[in-house]
Amino acid sequence: MASPDASRASSGAAPAIVLTGLRKEFPGNPPVVAVDGADLEIADGEFFSMLGPSGSGKTTVLRMIAGFEEPTAGSIELGGRDVTRAQPYDRDVNTVFQDYALFPHMSVLENVEYGLRVKKVGKAERRARAMEALEQVRLADLPARRPGALSGGQRQRVALARALVNRPKVLLLDEPLGALDLKLREQMQVELKAIQRDVGITFLFVTHDQEEALTLSDRIAVFNAGRIEQVGTAREVYEQPASGFVAGFVGTSNLLTGDVASAVLGRQGAFSIRPEKLTVAERGFGGDGLMRAPGTVVEVVYAGPVTRYVVGLDAGTRLIALQQNGSAAADTGFERGTAVDLLWHPDNVITVPTRTAH
Ligand code: ADP
Ligand code: MG
């Protein structure tokens, strides 16, 4: 059993998931290194997300934890038990996929019961547990419906209930909201978070959507090309990105490097200023204690609550500034081609660690 991480495991319970040097190569010429040495410790009851672009290894990590894929190297512990070589059915996890295949000829209740029927659980207990799972996903009023008569969000909840009915210690979710349109997706994000809080089991959630990961997660691991670039809370990965990749993938990076950094900030290195920390102001407009850089408005995109300005700095790069609409400063607006200053508070300059490329 892994030694408990003093900073997190206050109860002394074993972490829900521990990955140590986890690696997966797929045969080929050259071989595909899908996961290149992942180390991760996920606490019991955590809502943990793996965030990264397509092809960065998230699904492969999930499949190795579920036991559908054998690691090339490294180990997997669930609740303190080494399951690296265990069969999928011998692991206390369940998976919810994006393309949740419900049985169309079965009712909602029968769909949720199905796994228990296969396991030969008696009828009365099956019913009781399936109804409990439907209550957990707030679908207890529709047990007799056929999947075809449900909305996309309701179908997704049936898929969730089908996993919860097994009462796993850990639920693995691979882009489960990917098939839903944006509005429904945002609704389901809120639901999913509430369900996880109610049920209290560990969720390991995969997404390529940075906003989704920031919204839902207690902590996030940011994946890039089979490696974990950073693990932290939403605030940590957004406000203290560990690399240029993280700064760019989790939000708009507005990166200042090289000669531009020297000219604008008077410092060498790589820096980022988030769009919402920049103020677009008239040329020469005051701003005590603020830093400034002159530029020209290149593009204006009005988006209701905010307006997005692309400003070309005289020093030679483009930065994006988000201005709240309805706030006094932004009421006037600036047109394309207007000479402006960008203003920001020195505290909002993020130093981006630069690493040698691997
Ligand atoms: P993600 O879920 O982050 O999009 P995946 O884990 O699916 O990434 O894939 C990581 C890499 O491994 C990709 O380059 C992908 O093409 C490759 N890969 C995944 N599964 C297989 C497989 N069965 N055979 C060969 N290559 C694979
Ligand atoms: Mg995937």
* Elements, N to C (H/E): EEEHEEEHHHEHEHEEHHEHEEEEEEE
Unreliable parts: 1-10
Number of DSSP strand runs: 18
CATH topology assignment of the largest domain:
Rossmann fold
Q: What's the alpha carbon Rg, rounded to whole Å?
A: 24 Å
Content-based structural category:
alpha+beta
Largest sheet entry: 6 strands, mixed
Domain unit count: 2
According to CATH, the homologous superfamily of the largest domain is P-loop containing nucleotide triphosphate hydrolases
- Helix proportion range: 25-40%
Give the overall shape, derived from the CA principal axes. Answer: globular
Strand content: 25-35%
Secondary structure elements and their pairing?
Layout: E1 17-26, E2 32-42, E3 47-51, H1 58-66, E4 73-78, E5 81-82, E6 93-96, H2 108-118, H3 123-136, H4 152-164, E7 170-174, H5 182-199, E8 202-207, H6 210-216, E9 219-224, E10 227-232, H7 234-239, H8 244-249, E11 255-257, H9 258-265, E12 270-272, E13 279-282, E14 291-303, E15 306-313, E16 318-324, E17 339-344, E18 350-351
Parallel strand pairs: 3-8, 3-9, 6-7, 7-8
Antiparallel strand pairs: 1-2, 1-4, 4-5, 9-10, 11-12, 12-18, 13-17, 14-15, 14-17, 15-16
Helix pairs in contact: 2-3, 2-4, 3-4
This protein binds adenosine-5'-diphosphate and magnesium ion.
Give the tags:
single chain; alpha+beta; Rossmann fold; OB fold (Dihydrolipoamide Acetyltransferase, E2P); 2 domains; 6-stranded mixed beta sheet; 30% strand; binds adenosine-5'-diphosphate; binds magnesium ion
